[in-house]
Amino acid sequence: MTMTPKPLHLVGCGILAREVEFLIRKNGWDVRTDFLESSLHINLGQLQQQLTGALERHRDERPIVFYGCCHPLMERFLEQAATFRTEGQNCVEMLLGRQRFMAELEQGAYFLLEDWARHWDSVMHQSFGDHPQVARAIFHEDRRYLLAIRTPVSHDFTEAAEHAAASVDLPLRWMDASLEHLERVLQAAVDRRRREGSPP
Question: CA within 20 to 30 Å of 80's CA: 58, 60, 94, 168, which one?
């Protein structure tokens, strides 16, 4: 009698939720997802609370963690949950690949994904309050432009991206990114979980 493998689980940042779900369907992976809000990155205390809470909820499944180095205690969280995270410094590197990511970063890019653009005003207010001049000053210290990244499953977020760029007085550039690198990152994580064995 052949036993059907249990589904895998993934806990992660929702900033690329649409892209991750698309790749799960495309590849026929039996992976259940639990995405957290991307805005948690601006509050490390909230990120810790929400992420560790999700890992505890799914402790029995030992979920794959779809996060980069987004919290200074990330490795401790993973160790406590007896699991691992996807390979990459952050979600943009996972999407673009390290070489392309670093090239744009060194030129002064601030990476803008759709989810972040659509919640821009809320994120900026939580970060800087009613002091837009402070936000502009900080962005101008080392960023030269906002780089809005479109993927094959993005919706049109032109207006939101243009608003974000105007709010910090930086030029807006666009990049079209395939999902090939992100697919490899996820495939590697799925293969590792299967190789290490799913929970009993």
Answer: 94
